[in-house]
Amino acid sequence: MSALLQGKTAVITGAAQGIGLAIAEKFVAEGARVVLGDLNGEQVAAAAATLGDESVARGVACNVTSGDDVQALLDAAIEAFGAVDVMINNAGITRDATMRKMTEDQFDQVIDVHLKGVWHGTRLAAAHMRERKTGSIINLSSISGKVGLAGQTNYSAAKAGIVGLSKAAAKEVGYLGVRVNCIQPGLIRTAMTEAMPQKIWDAKMAEIPMDRAGEPSEIAGVAVFLASDLSSYMTGTVLEVTGGRYM
């Protein structure tokens, strides 16, 4: 049985660690070549080096709030591997605070990285893919974009916006053979979530029927499915990977 992503090239933002790196690892295991983008150039280069040599993986410094940076990331992949078949818009930050305490800058930062970042990645990847009449764009939303979480008016708004953006984009480019889908992770064990206070972690755990947090590799498996021909008739969908939380 051949690998699911054999011969494909994927670009993944926010890939120096966490979910982004887990997606890159699983993609390489399925035969893909990957170009990782992250704000920290040294860290993302080191992450790429753990996946293989330059014939398999490369790391590029990229600030997703800049369209020029995202274009440069795509150009690096095209120069290295000939084309981009899969775009994973995963980069994200949190600046949690209640509305009363949240600054305008904290709101803007989260909207810029998540929502504008995904817009840049979707728009620019689609421009390349439409010429080739094929491609899969996968945008990382969050369960907090479905239900809203206290202390996250910025993050919940951005993650809900990603769903609307993805559906609109899917309608624009579907006839060109380009698919756009979303993944909504629930509580996934990463450096970002492990930093939360134990009381909050326990409260989230109590909402999960499967009674455990998810692993980054479990998001990566769904990304492989959406990137591959297994999902060839799916676009504009939102796949919840939450252990049953907030059904």
What does the model show?
The chain is globular. It has one domain (9-241): Rossmann fold (3-Layer(aba) Sandwich). The model has no long low-confidence stretch (mean pLDDT 97). It is built from nine helices and seven strands, in the order E-H-E-H-E-H-E-H-E-H-H-E-H-H-H-E. The N and C termini lie far apart (35 Å). The protein is 46% helix and 15% strand. Helix 1 crosses helix 9 (216-227) and helix 4 (104-132) runs parallel beside helix 6 (153-173). It has helices spanning 18-29, 41-49, 67-81, 104-132, 144-147, 153-173, 191-194, 198-205, 216-227; strands spanning 9-13, 33-38, 57-61, 86-89, 135-140, 178-185, 238-241. Helix 1 links the parallel strand 1 and strand 2 (33-38). With 247 residues, it is α/β, with parallel strands linked by helices. A seven-stranded parallel beta sheet has the order 3-2-1-4-5-6-7, with helices on both faces.
